[in-house]
Amino acid sequence: MISVDRLILSPEVLAQEVGEEIVLLDLSNGTYYGLNPVGACIFRCIKEGKDIDEARASLLDDFDVGPEELERDIAELVDELLARRLLRVKEI
Amino acid sequence: MRVPGFTIEAQREQGARTDPPFYEWVFPDGTRASQFYRMPGGYLLRFPGLADFEVLEGGSRISCFPMPGVNDATPDHLFQSQVLPVVRGDRGGYVFHGGAVEIGAYSVAFLGQSGRGKSTLVASFASSGHRLLVDDGLTLEPCEEGFQVAPGHPSVRLWSDSEKILSRSGATRAAALHFTTKTRFLAGEGLAYCDRPRPLRAAYFLGDGSAREIVFRKLTKAETLMGWAKNSFLLDIEDPAIVASHFQRVAALSDALVGYELDYPRRLEELGRVRSAIVEHADSEGARR
Questions:
Q1: Which terminus of chain A faces fewer neighbouring Cβ atoms within 10 Å, N or C?
Q2: ipTM higher than 0.90?
Q3: pLDDT tens digits for A1-17?
């Protein structure tokens, strides 16, 4: 999996917080993508450019989830957001 | 919000366009309902075979050029039900593909794309004592209680399979419109109309009719936001500033109001039961507040 601290939001994407959730709008094709509270928290870590260890610690603190399940959730979400071009990999 | 100046000009043919429209509305059967083009100083909204509307000066000047042979009622109805909502949406309004009715001192709204049964539901309420607020082009305004529904055009348009709802109640039929085979009924006897804004208690996003029973599902805030956004009237969906501002407005709406998905079997004989369930549901929503 690509490290979350290498990910950035695509420039055509708007993110809007609603309660504990987030909705992403891709301006390039007008599609919407909703994130539940766990997904929203992962997304915030990515958006704020948190260090991967700091991000994991923050998520483990905030949700009733084990480290392995959290790794799986992060990997699935990142894969999906990359596939939908909502996230990009930062060039080094 | 200021209603833009609107004039109906001399009839003219619709000239061929070489540029593709930047946006189109298409009916469920694939027919093009309208095409949106850019033009110097504004936009051209084309309703094929019916009329062109030039929207200029940020929407403060709108001119209609009907096609030869189009009747008098069509330009005004296209303006009220299609053009004005998108202009208001771009200018910071809350305008949606939805209808609303009054229930007691408040209102409920039904949203969904064409063919989902909004007008049938609205007509069913309006023929049984709950006054019509708006059939389409649902317009919301912030108010003390959150948001209120502004009264819209005092008429309802129904497909032939639903028009018996209002035929039975004795509602008056209006002159036919060229752009639709729907029958238009005017407010009056058999179709009660509310001409005052009413606070909005609940928004129901209509499902596809596949449910075998009446089903209410509370939407998450994110789902509610997407529901409002997908059912919005906006003119320039390619302008990032307009879209971003609209995105923020519907987020505020989703924070203030709970949205529900509502589905039920689409049979006219079930409508009485559907109405009762909605009234009961909306009442309990009020009690939860």
A1: C
A2: no
A3: 567 778 889 989 999 99
